[in-house]
Amino acid sequence: MIWIIGGTKDSRDIIDRLGKSEIIVSTATEYGKKLLKGLNVVSESMDLNEMREFIRSKRVDLVLDASHPYAVNVSQNAIEASKAEGVDYLRFERNMLSYNGGIKFTSMEELAECVKKLEGNILVTLGSNNLSYFKDLSNLENIYFRILPIKKSLEKAEKAGILPKQIIAIQGPFSKEFNTAIYKNYEIKYVVTKESGATGGELEKIEAAADCGIKPVILSRPEIDYPWKTGDIDQIIKKVMEYEEA
């Protein structure tokens, strides 16, 4: 059994390529599960011990981690769980983009401190989990937040004191033209983003920003010591095929 840690577009692309392979997929949210209709999907967040039990109970022989680049705890626990249970671990890690002229930060605290000093309108595209870092900023009224149009995200925005007029609740990915339209409509001067890679609309976001003269403020990708990783889906598929033929 191949366990795919999913919830990303990367994972869906990999699943499509694997075809009839015997797989089970886990996602951290029900939303991620809904995007994988017809598959054997489990929607739950698991700690290290729960992952170990999952590997045993589902008779997993190979862990394929295609979680988001910023899902640090998920990947670290998956590495430890696979090692403890004696199963192989493969990591699909998106290739990074070039953020010319951007300002990079390794922590949300440092990033928020920078945003507090910026003049002009700012678009934050970090998702709803980081909204609390902005709630006490003196320039909050100049910040717009692009988040998923789901109840949980909107509740977090309300709790952080973000007004409805500051919320752009919409699901991506977005084209370069769509991003350009948002930047111009809200007169954006800075876009706050993650170093996520080309998948999921990040490339179009950054290209539109460059064309509009908008400066990226970037939360750097966390560094994890993966036992094995690639940013090439073809290489992932090849490794899985080798495993199945062994």
Summarize the structure.
With 246 residues, this protein is of the alpha/beta class. The chain has helices at 9-18, 30-34, 48-57, 72-85, 108-116, 151-159, 176-185, 202-212, 233-245, and strands spanning 2-5, 23-27, 41-43, 62-65, 88-92, 103-105, 121-124, 143-147, 167-169, 188-194, 215-219, 229-230. The longest helix is centred in the N-terminal third of the chain and has 14 residues, at 72-85.
Verbal overview:
By secondary structure, this protein is of the alpha/beta class. The protein has helices at residues 9-18, 30-34, 48-57, 72-85, 108-116, 151-159, 176-185, 202-212, 233-245; strands at 2-5, 23-27, 41-43, 62-65, 88-92, 103-105, 121-124, 143-147, 167-169, 188-194, 215-219, 229-230. Helix 1 crosses helix 9 (233-245) and helix 3 crosses helix 4. The mean pLDDT is 91. The strands form two sheets. The chain has a six-stranded parallel sheet with strand order 3-2-1-4-5-12, sandwiched between helices. Strands 6-11-10-7-8-9 form a six-stranded parallel sheet, sandwiched between helices. The relative contact order is 0.16. The chain folds into two domains: 2-94 and 224-245, HAD superfamily/HAD-like (Rossmann fold, 3-Layer(aba) Sandwich); 103-219, Rossmann fold (3-Layer(aba) Sandwich), CATH 3.40.50.620.
Shape estimate? elongated
Largest sheet: 6 strands, parallel
| CA(first)-CA(last) distance | 13 Å
Strand order of the largest sheet: 3-2-1-4-5-12
Class computed from helices, strands and strand pairing: alpha/beta
Oligomer: single chain
CATH superfamily of the largest domain: HUPs
Give Rg in angstroms: 19 Å
State which percent range the strand residues make up: 15-25%
Figure out the total of helices. Answer: 9
The domain tally reads 2
Indicate the mean pLDDT. 91
Instruction: Give me the strand/helix succession.
Output: EHEHEHEHEEHEEHEHEHEEH
CATH class of the largest domain: Alpha Beta
Helix content: 25-40%
CATH topology grouping of the largest domain: Rossmann fold
Number of strands: 12
- Unreliable parts: none
What's the CATH architecture of the largest domain? 3-Layer(aba) Sandwich
